[in-house]
Amino acid sequence: MSDWEEIRRLAADFQKAQSAGVANKLSERNCIEIVTKLIQLKLIDVIYTNDGKEYLTNDQLVREIKDELYVAGGRIGVVDLAKTTNVEFSQIEYVVEKICKEEDDCYFILGQIVTSTYLDNMATEINETLQQRGMVNITKLSNVDLPLDFVRKHVIARLGSIIEGFKDDMDENTIVTPSYIARNRAKVRGILSAITMPTSCSALASRFGIQERLFMSLADELIKTKRVPGVLSGRSAMNANYVPHSFAKSQNAWIESFYSSNGYLEYSAISRLGIGDPKGYLKKKYMDEKLVFLGSCVLGPPAVDQVKSALDNAMVTGSWIDLVPNMPSILSQSDEDELVQLLIKDKPNNLVLGSTTVLSMPLVEKVRADIEATMEARAKEDVDNGVIAKLIIESRGVNIDDDDKMDKKDERRKKAAGGKAGGGAQGRETKTKSTKKKGGKRKDDDWGDSDDEKKPTKGKGGNKKDLEFMSLDDLKATLESMSILADIPEEVYVELAQYLLPGLTSKYREVAMSMYQATLTKSMHNKRKTHSELQEEVNSLYTSFRLYEKGLKEIKNDANKENLAKHLLKTTASQILDSILLYVAEESMIKVPEAKELSASERQNLIKELPSDIAEPAMKLNKAVAGKSADDFLKTLEEESLNVCDVMLKKQDKKKDKQILFNHKIELLDKLGSCEDPALGLHLAALILFQHFTGNIIHASGKFVPTILSFVQEQLTLEQNQLLSNHQQLVVKQLKEKDSDLEGELEECLSNLKQMITNLKKNKEKNEE
Question: Looking at residue 60, what is its pLDDT?
């Protein structure tokens, strides 16, 4: 037999000896050697102690844990086990959890192992305490430091077996004995039987040492079984009173007599009888009757029907009624208000004013109609006197007919986006930018809104003034003069006026603005510029500006180019912006200066008064006009024209541009041919020469003539330059010295200048041929 087989045999014998407890059959030394080899070969599994001097098997550890648990009485902590067995804590915890899983009577709770034996002993101790006291509360057990739910579960499981008692239905943590309940029942029976006057249950329970909840439960049980004569008023011991039958009999007699005679009962009177909860008592006593419970009293059906009948009669006849005379006199102001609200809850066709005065809606509508009948005359007077126009100007941007304007603006947008028939060079440039409202429309200034009242809003110029039909005092005086409202309480006139005024004001605005719109349309028919005219004018100026800006690019000197650009912005660009601003100002009903050309300050102030959605892009255009770059203005105009006034700019058309340049040159030549002023002739000649040599036009005043002549002199002959220089010197000399002797010489120079321009045209035509 090999050593390996011998070790296996010895190991088997050793394990059998270990299990049987007779390991001493082998010598200690052999055991140590064999076990050491077996452990090294992982053929056996042992657990070392903390000091490493001893080891034991899993089965042995389980036996030692159970022994320690038995010695500890069925409950021991894992920490204590680790100290006792001298084994690592984690190993002990692992074995304990395994034991609790395998055995049903073991529980691992809060680092402790608890057995059914311990729980049985605990239940026995609880039972001893229960039998002595008659009641035990689990939460107050000081000697049990286990979780409440765990303890409750196992205590309840032992009720009727180890524990001779039962769980209280009102408190699951309380255990009582039948004898305890019987003793307290007898005590409560004796207490209630001896009482002759209404007494607080809370005071009785406190005096005789009975729990309030138990006292109420037993008292209610005794009353229901008619073991004690009396009633409980109130639903808890804090406010409940016990009323003996003899006393309750006299109470009932008085309550029933008073109720049958008057149809109502006051809570204060019920309280004086010794009833702590009057409302609860009456609900229980008269549960079959439809009582109306108010703040200080309760009304029976007869009293309620009397008030309801008077109200119904007023509603049927379309009049008004003050319900106070029909109500019991004992009602307080709050009771009256509450009763009225209850009665009109299912009657929406009425109006309550002055808390107890009810007006039928047909009556209110008749009053409203009578007042509205006077609106047209008042509106005509305000329109004729200019009151409405003044308010519109001061409010800066009031909408008159928002829907109509929006429809027209949508129609213009569609036409502009669609372009002319056939497209091509004459078509509009299609843009999808900007779909917001323009032309001065303010969504918060619509006087034609159907709401009763709009709060005044702050415009750009301050608080907006509202169009007023009449003041509150005037409306109150009008209501007081109406015969259908005669004898109505004084405070009702004020409340009715407050109720009607918002709707009347809104209606008057509609009538007045409609009348003003009709008058305005008629008077401004020939005054206001149409959108198509604006679009044509802006596009014409835009095309000219674009061609002028193209001509500026021919100037190489930056200083000269900047000065010419400023002149172009000050003239043509300002003209474009003025046309746009005057149009949107009229659209927004803003008062504008009579002059067609606006100064810089007038333009700035006008933009500030425009609605914000128009003012922002308009301000961008204004800044571009005040700038130094014609190209920047051109880009800004192309980006913002839709946002300001819905103008769609035309695309560049080279054929049309060529025709415009040709017509411009012909116009200059015609003017030069008929010109008799030497200074103007020199100006026209300079513009013609610039276009002749560059093919572009330029917008320049007389002070820029030297700049243009210096630009074209390289293209001219010496003789031509001499002619222009002489003419320029003579013009300057005449303007400075006012010398009339130069007129003949200037006429000759002007004639030579015209001849030179004509020859340039002929030479160009000949070269082209």
Answer: 77
Residues 535 and 647 in one domain: yes
Residue with tokens 């041929």: 769
**What pLDDT digit, counting tens, does each position of 156-197 carry?**
888 878 887 777 777 777 887 888 888 888 888 888 888 877
Beta strands across the sheet bearing 112-115: 75-77, 112-115, 106-109
Nearest to 211 by CA among 244, 187, 178, 243: 187
Is the pTM of the predicted complex or chain greater than 0.85?
no
Evaluate if residue 116 carries a pLDDT over 70: yes
Task: Output the pLDDT for position 353.
Answer: 75
DSSP string computed for 237-268: TTT-EEEEHHHHHHHHHHHHHHHHHHSEEEHH
Residue 36 has what pLDDT?
65
Task: Find the helix packing angle between 718-737 and 705-712, rounded to 10°.
Answer: 170
* Gap between the Cα atoms of 358 and 347, Å rounded: 11
- Whether residue 576 sits in one domain with residue 628: yes
Residues 6+ apart with CB under 8 A from 151: 122, 138, 141, 144
Q: Where are the alpha helices (DSSP H) in 301-355?
A: 301-317, 333-343
Last-in-domain residue among 609, 634, 652:
652
- Alpha carbons 149 and 272: distance in angstroms, whole number: 48
Distance separating alpha carbons of residues 12 and 15, to the nearest angstrom: 5
| Closest to 509 (Cα-Cα) out of 586, 461, 457, 453 | 453
Residues 6+ apart with CB under 8 A from 329: none
Tens digit of each residue's pLDDT (9 = 90 or more) over 634-644 = 899 888 888 88
pLDDT digits (tens, 9 = 90+) for 391-404: 765 664 444 344 44
What tokens does 198 get? 């209404």
Residues 195, 231: contact at Cβ < 8 Å?
no
Based on DSSP, count helices (H) and strands (E) in the chain, helices before strands: 32, 19
Q: Tell me the residue ranges of DSSP E strands in 643-735.
A: none
pLDDT tens for 371-385 read 888 888 887 777 766
Q: Please state whether 226 falls in left (phi above 0), alpha (psi between -120 and 50) or beta.
A: left
Residue 14, amino acid: F
Q: Are residues 632 and 734 in the same domain?
A: no
Query: Which of 619, 652, 685 finishes a domain?
Result: 652
Q: Which helix (H) or strand (E) holds 558?
A: helix 558-568
As to burial, measured by CB atoms within 10 angstroms (0-12 exposed, 13-18 middle, 19+ buried), residue 552 is buried
**Is the residue at 449 inside a domain?**
no
The answer to whether residues 708 and 690 touch, using CB atoms and an 8 Å cutoff, is yes
- Does 435 map to a domain? no
Closest CA to 247 of 191, 196, 201: 196
Residue 318 lies in a domain: no
- Look at the block and give the residue holding tokens 């006849």: 317
75 within some domain: no
* Residue 638 CB coordination number (10 Å): 14
DSSP string, 12-69: HHHHHHHHHT-GGGS-HHHHHHHHHHHHHTT-S--EE-TTSS-EE-HHHHHHHHHHHH
Boundaries of domain holding 34: 1-44
3-class secondary-structure state, position 449? coil
